[in-house]
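Supplementary notes (optional reading)

For those who missed the lab, this is the record we used. Protein: N-acetyl-gamma-glutamyl-phosphate reductase. Length: 321 residues.
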Amino acid sequence: MIEAGIIGGAGYTAGELIRILLNHPEVNLNFVFSTSQPGKPIYSIHQDLIGDTEIKFTDKINTEVEVVFLCLGHGNSKKFLAENQFSAKTKIVDLSTDFRQKSDDHKFIYGLPELNKKDIEKADLIANPGCFATAITLAILPLAKNALLKDEVHINAVTGATGAGTSLSGTTHFSWRDNNFSAYKSFEHQHLNEIGQSLKQLQADHDAEINFIPNRGNFSRGIHATAYTKFEGDLDEAKKLYADFYQDAAFTFITDEELHLKQVVNTNKCLLRLQKFGNKLLITSVIDNLLKGASGQAVQNMNLMFGLDEKLGLNLKASYF
């Protein structure tokens, strides 16, 4: 059994990780670290786990675990690792933004399996992708692979309230979010950097604008993204490019059906739909921001790092009604 620990156990992504790991056939959840909830049962925060586990949050760290997941606020993972040293055998999966940009200062591999599977299999350190970045990058990677991103890409995407985390703010209160919709960080979202980095990995000369408008939706979870750009080929050519690129992908699928969030919420899937309008290719992408956009993908990466089937423990089913 793989001994696993979670750092920052009270948030949404940690809750999803706990649920997955408790049911993973090759994992024992060794500890869940939380500075805000030490000594309290996990189910006091993640209340659906009543009857499933008696594990309590702890403020002690087992530095000998085989894998640790960092579910800390952005900017805190670097600080935590500087202050706490794990054993040489411990693999680390970080779910913050701290290590997603390539740098000589760290050896983290960007953990998008559809792009870096071989490197992930050999890695000890993984920077888990952002939720918007996952949905958007998967929507346009096949075009970059074939050097077909020659013009601006226009993206409009909406995420659920869980994308903002558990900390309250003026835009996360129910009274503000309910029956409401708004854009934020237009053209300046922090995930743009990692999206651009992934595109350049496959199309080194890519320098066209990525125009991204993120939106807040009045639902709890999920991301619905649409991206369009100029494409000279026909729809069948585009479908073949995508089918070829994702033929071995465990969780990314192409469909001709109209997409909506209930198809993917509570799963680790990304569904893509292609449509052609004049000289433009429209790609619709849907994921669960907490699973394929965070914790599910983190476990997928863990599976690859330990030589397991990447689907193991991730046979999650959507709740359609």
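If you only remember one thing from this example: The first strand starts at residue 2 and ends at 7.
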